[in-house]
Structure formats: structure tokens, C-alpha cells
Write a structure and sequence with these properties.
nine-stranded antiparallel beta sheet; alpha+beta
């Protein structure tokens, strides 16, 4: 077995590989850019090597720098993680020439299947059903428009060397094809150093289901069930689960057998994933093969008990698989939610900055299930503009899908993240969405259910009453603490009453509290009541409550006269007042926000790449105004209505913060 391996990656996947290597008794080497010198993966590894400036094309994807780090540390093998150099055959070639083991597939398999154009041609030759498209190289935007028209809109514009949603656009007309081609080409060049683009028909209403395969160098190959990855935003997966709620055993086996056959046809070894799109009739079509470890591999590990990273290391060491197809079972259900540094209230635009608070739920057992959190950050660390916005992968396992969802709900509600925008509220909303609960999902789920973006969750009546009851009980605890302040005047003892008014989400709820040492009984005007117990101390940011024995997790912030409560995707201002205070509060005027309707504000920290208009120009609704780049993604900002540009405050190359004014209108 290897004595030392180098991880040619960063973030959560580098930390994930280090954990398994440590379990196997293998020493690890981390590489890091200037932006990552204090990163978690550097702290966890036995050694660290600085490889250059923050941009990935000057550090993490520079083969010569990785090779020098290998030479300097004496690493015998390299795990590439995902992204960066993981599917670069030149990197595999360089390792082979240096006599260093690549913990991944052979160079030939990477070339055959890692390139999306080549892999589709091989699949077609092998008789595998593929999505209609143009597999040749596309020279410019005019040719992209012509090909798109021949295939028929909508089309998917993809980077040949792409992955992780980078370099991908859906075009519904000629204008979008022209814009999408150029943006995809730019992103591909920046992220992968390869700007080749291809176009295929975009199949509407599909499911994205993938098969995990594992092959060794001795001719053995198995498939480890499937992962449902249909909930995506901008072609980037957000929620994954294993198994799929849609497949039956016959379809699962057919997909698995085909995936292994395809892998063997190209001499594949190591872990890999064959992706399919599946229609409503369970017809499946080969999409691509990812010749690396997938981001969402933990859900497969949770339902099979197989450590995929360990298997990759053993295969790279020349060992045969000790697992047969008959050994692979489906044990329970697993769900993964990807926590991104993206602000759902601003159209999921990237958010960067320091994590002033980062407290994931404890890993292990929670409410009848298991919680796992794969992460590469820590409290006080910084989310950089140079890399992928992923903060963590929160996974839950339980014996049934329904139970796994419930464990995930509580885990999300107890996950504390402050300092940046993040998608925790959105993930919580998805877990409560009827279509997700029933498994009626497609890759269009987010676009269909949130066409105007995410504006938060409106709690139903029962959930609202539960939050009101919990806040009333918590407020009583805080009030009692305030009565015990020392140094008060004699004969001015503060009394804590039993009658309170709770206002939240536009509702006003009167309650009567009856407390004892074990908890509080909260009675409503309609005669209903709820028993509140739990663990919360005034000043603490997380309340672990139980209402009639059912868990309720609340993230708690203090505001004047009450709490800021976040739970189940809702962000609530909750005021708990005496009846007289509530009466007076209703007479107070409401403060209105400032008018920014005649300004284009920068929705995220980023770099202005292009300004499409000039002062004095008339603009139409939907017209492109400028392009902002952040976290390797180009974002085109468009006019919300007709108007005339009166002033431009920023130009190409300018770095802007959130809400900086880019331009103004008459």
C-alpha cells in the first residue's frame, strides 16, 4: 500500500480524501494557493505545499506545479478529487511518466469518456441510445446559431471538458444561442483550459439519474445502484438522493448493466459515474461518463456501506475488488443537500466573505437517522471569489425516504451559517415541497416551482402556531431572567404575566401560558393548546425545542421586542408583547425601504467583464446591460423595464461589492 498520497485539489473533497487516507494509515500532502493558505484541507493534511496565486489557472490546474509538489514531498500516488485536473489526460500522462500512481482511471479511458464529444461517439458506436446533437467542433457563435436551428430549440450548449454546471447554457432562440455560446466558451476556457463547445437537443421534463460504477485492473466491474440528481439549478445539482424514488428494479438493473458494459469497453478502472436522462416512461439515454469521483458520492456510500475513496486507492494500488455484484444491496435511503454560498433572495447569485458563524449539526445519530457533513470550511474562514461556492454537503440517512427527509429537515434547521448569503432556506423549502415529498421531480423542478426566484417560505397555519407557541415560551424564560437582574430599586419588582400576544408573518396570535419546571403549556384563543419543552438559553443562537414531543429546531436572533426566527425555510420577525404593548404597536407607522428602482445594483461581489450600453442609450426590457463574473461564472444583468441610461459608474475590470450602483436611469 502507498505510504503517502498527494491530493491535487482543495475544499471539501480534499478533506474527504484525507479522512479515508488517515483511516488507512496513509500520510497525505495538501496543495494550496495563496487564497487557501489557512484552508481546512491544509490543516488536516500531514504536509502542505504552496503552488501559486489564487486563480486556479495559475495554481490548481498548472500540471508542472503539481508535479513539482509531488517530487518535493515524495508522494507515491495522487488523488485528483473532482474538477481541476481530475479528468485531464495530460495530467495522468505526466504522472505515469514520473512513475506516480494516479488514483483514477487510465489515460485512455479519460480521453475516451472524459471528453463529452468523444464519449457520445463511442456510445453511439456501441449501440447506446444517445440524445440527438452535433458532436463536431463549433468554431463561432454564427455556426452555433445555425446548428441550434437545425437541431431544433431548445438546445443545450456544453463545454466538451466541462463539469459541475460550468460552461453550460440552455438556449431557446437564436439570441440566447449566440450569448450562451460565448459565455460557455469563456467559462470553459477559464475553468478547464479547454474552450471546445458542442450542442445537443435539450430534452424537456427529464430526470437525471446516474449509475455509480467501480472497476479494477483485473477485469472486475460492478455497479453500486443509482443516484437521483434531478433537482438542479443552472445545470448544477442541488439535491441528490439514493436510491431514486422513480426506478423499478428492472430498470435499475438494465441501467447498471449498461453502465458497467460501457466502462469495460474503454478499459475503465477506479470509481466512475455513467449519467443518464430518463423520461416518464423509464426510457433512459446515455448522457456522459464522469471519469472521477462524483460530488454526490456520499449518498451511495450511505446506502451501500462502501467507502468509494478507499476502493479507488486500493484499485490504484493494483488490488482486485473484494466486492461482487451480489454483495451490493440497498440499505435504507440517503439524501444530500449541497450548501452553497449563494443568496437565494438575490436570484442565487454568489456570495463571498467571512463565515462569522459556522456550526453544522453534529455528525452521527439524529432523530432516528444519521447525519453526515462533508465540508472544507470552518468558522472564521473565508469564502473566496476564486473557487466553487460550495460550503458543505449535508447528508442524512434513515431506513425510509420519508424518515430521511425528516432527519434532513431537522439537520438543516440546526445548521448555523452567518456572515454570507447561503441557500439553507431554499434547501429547507425543497424538503417541504409536495413535489419533492412525492418524488414527482424532473430537472425542471426549480424553474417550474420557483419561476420568479425564491422569496422565502410562508409557513402554514399549524407550523405558524408551533413557532408562536415556542417563541412565547422562550420569551417567558427571557423575561424571568430579566426580573433577576441585581441592583434594582426596592418595591419595583417586575412581574411576568401569563397573557401574551405573538405577531409573526402578518398574523396576531393571543396566547395564555401555564408554566412548570418541565416546560410550558401554551393555550390559544380557539381552545387549542401545545406543550412546549426543550433546550434554549437566552442569548443562544439555536433552540432545540419539542412541541407535544415533536422536535422543532429554531435559529434564534434577538430583535427589539422579540426574536428573529429561521426555521423550515422561513425567516420571521416574531414580536412577543403584552396585550397593551400589542395594542400600541398596531398604531406605529411602517418604515418603507429606499427607492432603488432607477438604479442597476450589483447583486453580488464580482468583477465587471463587459458593459453593453453607454450613457444616453435607450434600453428595452430584458436587454443585456453588463456582465459580472463571480466564482468562475458569468452573470448577464438585464434591464427590468424600458428606460434611458443617465449615468454609468463602473467599467470593465472594476471590482464591485453587493449593492454597488453600476448604472442609473432617468
Amino acid at each position: 500500500m502507498f505510504d503517502k498520497i498527494l491530493i491535487a485539489n482543495r475544499g471539501e473533497i480534499a478533506c474527504r480524501v484525507i479522512k479515508t487516507a488517515r483511516k488507512m494509515g496513509i500520510k497525505t500532502v495538501a496543495v494550496y494557493s495563496e487564497a487557501d493558505k489557512h484552508a481546512l484541507h491544509v490543516e488536516m493534511a500531514d504536509e502542505g505545499v504552496h503552488i501559486g496565486p489564487p486563480p486556479a489557472n495559475q495554481s490548481y490546474i498548472v500540471i508542472d506545479k503539481i508535479m513539482q509538489a509531488i517530487k518535493d514531498t515524495g508522494a507515491q500516488a495522487v488523488h485528483p478529487g473532482y474538477g481541476f485536473l481530475s479528468e485531464n489526460p495530460k495530467f495522468a500522462d505526466a504522472l505515469e511518466a514520473a512513475g506516480v500512481a494516479f488514483i483514477g482511471p487510465p489515460k485512455g479511458a479519460i480521453e475516451a469518456m472524459g471528453d463529452k464529444i468523444t464519449s457520445k461517439k463511442i456510445a453511439q458506436e456501441a449501440g447506446v441510445s444517445t440524445v440527438p446533437g452535433y458532436m463536431g467542433l463549433i468554431e463561432d457563435a454564427d455556426e452555433a446559431v445555425k446548428i441550434s436551428g437545425e437541431i431544433g430549440y431548445p438546445v443545450m450548449i456544453k463545454a466538451s471538458a466541462g463539469g459541475g454546471g460550468k460552461g453550460m447554457r440552455i438556449a431557446w432562440n437564436d439570441e440566447e444561442a449566440r450569448e450562451g455560446f460565448q459565455s460557455s466558451k469563456n467559462e470553459a476556457a477559464s475553468s478547464f483550459g479547454d474552450d471546445r463547445i458542442f450542442i445537443e437537443k435539450f430534452v424537456t421534463q427529464p430526470r437525471h439519474i446516474e449509475i455509480q460504477v467501480l472497476c479494477d485492473a483485473h477485469g472486475n466491474g460492478i455497479w453500486l445502484n443509482e443516484r437521483e440528481c434531478s433537482i438542479q439549478r443552472r445545470n448544477q445539482k442541488v439535491v441528490e438522493e439514493a436510491p431514486s424514488p422513480f426506478l423499478d428494479p428492472e430498470t435499475r438493473k438494465a441501467m447498471g448493466d449498461q453502465a458497467v458494459a460501457l466502462a469495460k469497453a474503454v478499459g475503465y478502472t477506479s470509481a466512475g459515474t455513467v449519467e443518464f436522462i430518463v423520461d416518464g416512461e423509464k426510457n433512459f439515454y446515455f448522457l456522459e461518463m464522469n471519469t472521477r469521483l462524483q460530488v454526490e458520492h456520499p449518498v451511495t456510500e450511505l446506502i451501500t456501506g462502501v467507502d468509494l475513496v478507499e476502493q479507488m486507492i486500493r484499485v490504484a494500488n493494483g488490488e482486485p475488488l473484494t466486492i461482487t455484484q451480489d454483495d451490493v444491496k440497498i440499505n435504507g435511503w440517503a439524501i444530500e443537500n449541497r450548501l452553497y454560498a449563494e443568496d437565494p433572495y438575490r436570484g442565487f447569485l454568489p456570495s463571498i466573505g467571512r463565515l462569522t458563524r459556522y456550526r453544522p449539526p453534529a455528525e452521527g445519530e439524529l432523530h432516528g437517522g444519521i447525519v453526515r457533513n462533508d465540508t472544507g470550511v470552518y468558522e472564521g474562514g473565508e469564502i473566496s471569489m476564486y473557487y466553487d461556492p460550495m460550503i458543505a454537503k449535508l447528508c442524512t440517512w434513515a431506513s425510509t425516504r420519508e424518515a430521511a427527509i425528516e432527519v434532513m429537515r431537522n439537520a438543516l434547521d440546526s445548521f448555523e451559517v452567518e456572515g454570507i448569503g447561503h441557500n439553507l432556506p431554499f434547501l429547507a423549502a425543497v424538503m417541504d415541497h409536495e413535489r419533492f415529498i412525492t418524488g414527482n421531480i424532473t430537472t425542471a423542478f426549480i424553474a417550474e416551482e420557483y419561476p420568479d426566484g425564491f422569496e422565502g417560505v410562508t409557513l402554514g397555519t399549524d407550523a405558524l402556531r408551533d413557532v408562536a407557541a415556542a417563541c412565547a415560551a422562550m420569551n417567558r424564560v427571557a423575561e424571568i431572567r430579566r426580573t433577576r437582574i441585581s441592583g434594582t430599586l426596592d418595591n419595583h419588582e417586575r412581574q411576568v404575566g401569563d397573557h401574551w400576544n405573538v405577531s409573526l408573518q402578518g398574523e396576531s396570535i393571543d396566547v395564555v401560558l401555564s408554566a412548570d419546571k418541565q416546560g410550558t403549556t401554551v393555550k390559544f384563543e380557539d381552545g387549542g393548546e401545545v406543550r412546549v419543552t426543550g433546550d434554549w438559553t437566552p442569548g443562544h443562537a439555536l433552540a432545540r425545542m419539542e412541541l407535544n414531543g415533536k422536535p422543532l429546531m429554531l435559529k434564534v436572533g434577538k430583535i427589539s421586542g422579540g426574536f428573529r426566527i429561521r426555521t423550515r425555510g422561513a425567516d420571521l420577525k416574531v414580536n412577543v408583547r403584552t396585550p397593551r404593548q400589542a395594542e400600541l404597536a398596531r398604531l406605529m407607522p411602517e418604515k418603507l425601504p429606499p427607492d432603488t428602482s432607477k438604479m442597476l445594483l450589483c447583486p453580488m461581489p464580482g468583477l465587471i467583464v463587459k458593459v453593453n450600453v453607454a450613457e444616453g442609450d435607450e434600453v428595452q426590457e430584458g436587454q443585456a446591460l453588463c456582465t459580472v463574473e463571480a466564482m468562475k461564472m458569468e452573470n448577464i444583468l438585464r434591464a427590468e423595464r424600458r428606460g434611458k441610461v443617465s449615468k454609468i459608474n463602473a467599467g470593465p475590470g472594476d471590482s464591485l461589492a453587493v449593492d454597488d450602483v453600476i448604472m442609473e436611469f432617468e
